[in-house]
Amino acid sequence: MKTAKLPESAGRALAQVLFIGFFVFPIIWIFLMSLKNFRDIISYPPKFLFSPTLQNYRETILGAEGTLQAGELPEYVRFLLNSMIISGGAVCLAALLGIPAAYALARGGLPGRKHIAFTFLSFRFAPELMIILPMYLIYTQVGLYDTYAGMILSHQLICLPLVIWIMMSFFQDIPIEIEEAARIDGANILLTLRAVILPISGPGIASAMIIAFIFSWNNLIFGLVLAGPNSRPVTMGILQAMTFDQIKWGLMAAAAMVSAVPGMIAATYLQRHITRGLTMGAVR
Amino acid sequence: MSSISLSGVSKFWGDTIGVKDLSLDIKDKEFLVLLGPSGCGKTTTMRMVAGLEKPSTGTIRIGERDVTGLDPRERDVAMVFQNYSLYPQMTVAQNIGFPLRARGVKRNEQRQKIYSAAKLVELSEYLGRKPAALSGGQRQRVALARAIVRSPAAFLMDEPLSNLDARLRISMRGLIKRLHQEVGTSTIYVTHDQLEAMTLADRIVVMRNGEVEQIGTPKEIYNNPRTAFVAGFVGSPSCNLLDGEIVDGMFSAEGISLAAPLKPDRGKATLGIRPEAISLADGAEAELRGTVFAIEMTGDATLVTVSVGEQQLIAKLDADCTLEPAQAVTLKTGPRRFFFEGKTGLAI
Question: Chain B partners of A191 at a C-beta cutoff of 8 Å?
Answer without folding.
Answer: 101-102
